[in-house]
Every structure is written in C-alpha cells, then in structure tokens.
Amino acid sequence: MTWPSGTSPSGLAALAHGAVLSPFTQLRKLLGTTPAGHVEPIDLTIGEPREPMPTFVVDKLLEAAPSYAHYPPIRGTAEMRGAISAWAARRYGATAALDPEREVLPLNGSREGLFLAALPAAGRTQVAGRPAILMCNPYYSAYIGGALAANAEPMYLNATEATGHLPDLDALADDKPLLERTVALYLCSPANPQGAVASPGYISRALELARAYDFLLFFDECYSEIYSDAPPAGALQVAAATPQRFANLVVFNSLSKRSNLPGLRSGFCAGDAGFIETFAELRNMVAPQMPGPTQHVSAAVWADEAHVEANRVAYRRKYDICDRILAGRYGYRRPAGGFFLWLDVSNFGGAAQATVTLWQRAGVKVLPGAFLAQAGRDGTNPGANYLRLALVRDAATVGEALERLVVVLA
Q: Cβ distance 207 to 242 under 8 Å?
C-alpha cells in the first residue's frame, strides 16, 4: 500500500488518510482514461452475481412492509435466527445446529461483520506487544480494514500454488512469538479468489491453533454454496464434533452469493456464544439494525434450497465453458468452489501489464491479483502474476470474454 507524504500511519489513521485503496480504485488508476479496445466491453471485475434472485423475494418484502414503522431488533427476529439455525443443521448435520438465542447474530451483509468483529477480538485478550491479526493473502478488504481499525498489526499469510492456495498452517504453528500476540485469524473457504476449499483436517488444524493460543478464528464462508462437485466442508461442521463445540470460532455467511441478493445486505455470523454476546453489544451501540422486511425475506430465503441448486447449475455451465476454452492455459483449474478464475499470466509481463493489454486490445476488464494482496512475510506478493475474473455474467458473455482473452494472450 502507498502511504501519503512518505509517512506510515498505523491503525485507524491509515484508513482515515485514505492510505488503503480498494482493488477497484487501484484498477481505475491503472487504466486511467484508456479506452476499451472493443465496441462491446465486458467487465469481469466485480463479484456481483447476475443470476436470478428467488422469485418470492418481492412478495415477502411486501408482506412485512408494515414493520418499517418500528425499530427492528438489533439481534434479529426469532424467525430469522431460527431459519439460519435450521439451515446450518440441514447443510452440516444436526450436530451443527445453532442455538438461535446465543450462537447466531444477523448482520447487514457479511462485510460489515467481518470488519467490526476485529474490534472485540482485539479487546478480548491482553497480549505482549502490538496485537496481530492474521489473514489469508490474497484477502478480502474487510479483513485489513478491521485489523487497522483495531490498531492491530495486519500479518499476511501467503496462499500460493505451493501451499494449495491456502495459508501454510504448519509454518504458522512454528512461529510461537507471532501466535502469542495474535487476536484473530481470517480464513476464507472457498477461497476468494483462488477457489480452493479447506479440508476438514485443515479447518481442524486452524481451530486447534486458535484454541491453543486463545484467539478467534474468523471463517469467511460466503461462497460455501457455489461449488462444482462436493459441498465444501464447513467450520461449524468440524467444530461441532469437538468437545469445545464452537469455542474460538465465528463463521460468516450471507445471501449475496448464495441467493444472488447482494443488494439485500443480509448476512450473519455464528459460533462462539461468548463472543457473539460481546459482538452483539458492540453492534447495539454503533451498527445499524437490519430492517424488518429484510429479516422477514431473509428467513424465507434461508429456508429455500431450490433456487440455490439452480444457481449451482448455472455456474457449472460456466465452469464447463472455462474447461473448454482455458484447458492447458494460464495454470487454469476448474474451481472447487466460488465463481472466480485465478489465472497465471507470468509469461505475459505480470498481472498489471496483462490487465492493461486486455482492456486496450479486447475490451475485457479484469482485476490484477496484486491489488487483492500485499507483500507477505517473505516479501513477495502472491497475486503479482495472476488475474482474477468473476464469472458473474451469463454463460455466453463469459465465453466471449474468455475467447477474447485467449486471442490477446496467445
């Protein structure tokens, strides 16, 4: 990241100074006023689902319209919490059923929760020296925002091809001084952007470290319902099989990707009851409530699986197109989960150069992987040679974009 005037502000000051730029701001600066090299540009940068939302959403919103006249409960309605708990039991087995009174907290989208959760995590325990918040690298911007807002030191755990595109937990386990000042670890599975899925053993190992050093494991599962073959294992599923149950674990999920409702701003966090209680009190002081109609429709959406399976079918068609066009190119592998491609363009001058070339010559807008990551502990940026493509457009448009990409990057 670039600090203004040669300074290096820390914590909240870094956010206030605008020293941390979003990937999309960086992309706008990179492309500048460069015109698209095609009369029909295709934007594959933003992970905004374009598949149909559930047909009953509008009717459910209208049903609950009178509740706009009342302050909604900050901890969510019993209807919504119950629907989330029932979904977890269906998805991960009866042992993973959540206590809707103590282990579930609705959020205005998972991004809000992933950011704010860093604050009570940093205040939960006293550590020697500056608290550290660890995160998979590449990361989602809310992770670094939360770390800086909590005045914790962001520590980037590179997730590369050599490590299966997930952080190396064995290497982390060897760094006892770092773990002793860690207050939270952010992991994402299926991973954004690489599509890697954490195995039950990997999740168990992360949870063991969190409990051994008493920090919070923040598990971002926003892409959990988009997958090619087997359903990804969930952290609730793994934790429920341990004697400590959900201790030290908080899982985040939302309806944005699962149900094509990014504009609804409806998500939840669940897990460690003690942390959920503290987090709920923080949100009661500083965060907005979720509107009553939003909670009502969210309960209905979490209870329905038909639209979710239809969504997976649509993404499988796009995966099939990727298999056909990209086989043997750019290190492509069919994603195990999520809807991003993570393509290696190291032979084309790196991600930034390839991004500009694709826009200038083909009108295809993609995101350089370096903008989604920082230099890790070894000094390297794991995204420097990669492009992220979001498979959110219709299948024909995705195919057209990939055909153009192959022509340009032949």
A: yes
